[in-house]
Structure formats: structure tokens, C-alpha cells
Amino acid sequence: MTVPPAFSPLLIPVPYRVVDKVREDGGGDDVTSLHVVPVEGDLPPFLPAQVSMLGAFGVGEAAISVSSAVDNRRFHAYTIRRAGPITGALVDTPIGGVITVRGPFGTPWPLDEVATSQLLIVGGGLGIAPLRAVIEQAIAESHRFDRIVVVYGARSPEAMVYRDDLARWAGQGVEVALTVDAASPGWDGPVGVVPALLGGPVTMGWHEDVTAFVCGPDVMMHFTAQRLRELGTGAARIWLTTERNMQCGNALCGHCQLGPFIVCRDGPVVSYEQIERFHRVKGL
User: Model confidence over 50-59: pLDDT tens digits?
Assistant: First the structure.
């Protein structure tokens, strides 16, 4: 008798109910956090940067990281920008409506393995979402670090997400540095790309004693990693998440292949030491 191959229960879509929707930005990007719970059973545990495949019935699935804190047992949050039919259908799901979830799965930010005394967390645009949970965890474990610095850049002040969280993190001892591509009236902070903040007052004197977690558009992650390397940060202590390339979550379709890596199988979090030359293959 032929025994069917084993399969992961994470491949089975599970119905989740939307219990709340939170508009996250004021810049017209239609960024919304869905708060969801399983229709039946308990919330599964997850680790920061892990990803789920969210499904809209009859439309398709999209890979979205869990953006709530790991100790939040009331719901999982998924922060989504309307960018096409699938994300549009997810964002339009009403409170009380149902979506499907496969996951969470994937490699997390290696916070437990950080041996340096200074932690740098760098986000660009909606790339702050996969970093939100690890920021909360780092704050809870702040006794381990001399400094926790969050550098976040957005297209404009209005496009920044989690503005209440950014203010709260600053009040909890995190050094928060913000920049925008284009200023609006009333903005008196830096204007420019995220890597330009590195090496100035934000990271002055860090030298090699820093571990960095970076998430954002590919070009931003590339130049952020390059800038950190110029400043003396070892490639093995720069970590990126590449979830934006994921499409099936099954390691079958090949769309997320990056060199020898299948992101949904081997990632999404990888060290720059592992990924550097394949990141360059993408033309960055």
C-alpha cells in the first residue's frame, strides 16, 4: 500500500474572523490593520517576523507578517496596504467578516541570539510592520541592551504608520529617529533616505558593537546594509526580511527564489552574510 506523503497543517487554510480594523496612516495609502481571531480554537503562537498567507475568498492569498506583539493573546494583527485585488479584498473585509489564514510560519528575527549591547532596528515605509513585534519584545527585554535605536523613514509625515507606537516607544527609552522623503508643513525633522541617518548622531560611536534588523523596500535594505558595512558592522549581524517576494508559502511556485534560497522555506529572515551577493543579482 502506498503511504501518502506527510503534509504540514500550515498548508490548510483556517477561517479567521475580523474583530477590528484600524486605519494606520493619514497619507492616502489606505493602510489598515486587520485584527483577527480563529473562528474556532485558540490563537496559535508566533515569533516576530513570521508570516501568514491571508486569503480572501474567491480572490487569492497574500503573504503578510503578524504585526501585533507576541504576548497579545486577544488577536493577531496584520497591517496591509491596498495594492491590488487581493490586498484590496482583505482591507475591504468588514468587521465580522471572515478571511483565511495559513500560518504563521518562517524564520523570525534572532533576538534571542543577539550578543551585542546595542540593537538597531531600521524600517522603511510599511517595512516597519514586520519589525513591530520585535521592537515590543526588545523593550520587554531592554535590560539586555545599552541602547535600542529605531530608525524609520516614510515618503511623508502623513504616510508614517504606527505613530502612536513610535511616540510610546520613545517614552519607554527607545531612541527613535524619523526621516521623510518629502516634508509637509509643520515637519521639522530630517528629510532624506534612511541610510543617510546612519553614521551621524544616531549611530555615532557604535563601531562594531551593534546588531541590526532591517525591513523595507529592497533598494532601501540594500543601501542600509551597505552603509552599515561601511560603518564596520559585520555582515553576519545585519538581518533582513524578504517576505515581500513570497507568493505561495508552499516552497513550490518558485516566485520567491533568491539565489539558492526559497524565501518561504528558508526565510523570511536571513543574514546579509547569507544573502548579499544574491541581493545584488536583483539589480540593486
Answer: 999 999 999 9
**Chain-centre distance for alpha carbon 155:** 17
Q: In this structure, are 260 and 175 located in the same domain? A: yes
- Burial label, 172 (beta-carbon count in 10 A; 0-12, 13-18, 19+): middle
- Residues β-bridged to residue 177: 151
DSSP-based three-state secondary structure for 239: strand
Number of domains in the chain: 2
- pLDDT tier for residue 5 given thresholds of 50, 70 and 90: low
- Report residue 99 as a C-alpha cell: 478571511
- Integer CA distances (angstroms), 155 to 67, 159, 182, 186, 272, in order: 20, 6, 6, 15, 25
In this structure, what C-alpha cell is assigned to residue 56? 480572501
Residue 78 phi, psi dihedral angles, 5° rounding: -130, 120
Structural domain containing residue 143? 111-281
Q: Give burial (CB, 10 Å; 0-12/13-18/19+) of 38.
A: middle
Rounded distance, CA 26 to CA 91, Å? 16
- Residue 51 phi/psi, 5-degree rounding, is -120, 150
Length of the chain: 284
Do both 196 and 232 map to the same domain? yes
CA–CA distance from 121 to each of 1, 76, 111, 118, 271 (Å)?
53, 22, 11, 10, 14
The predicted model scores a pTM of 0.90
Instruction: Read off the CATH number of the domain in which 140 is found.
Output: 3.40.50.80
Query: Is residue 174 classed as helix, strand or coil in its secondary structure?
Result: coil
Angstrom CA distances, 44 to 53, 70, 264, stand at 14, 10, 19
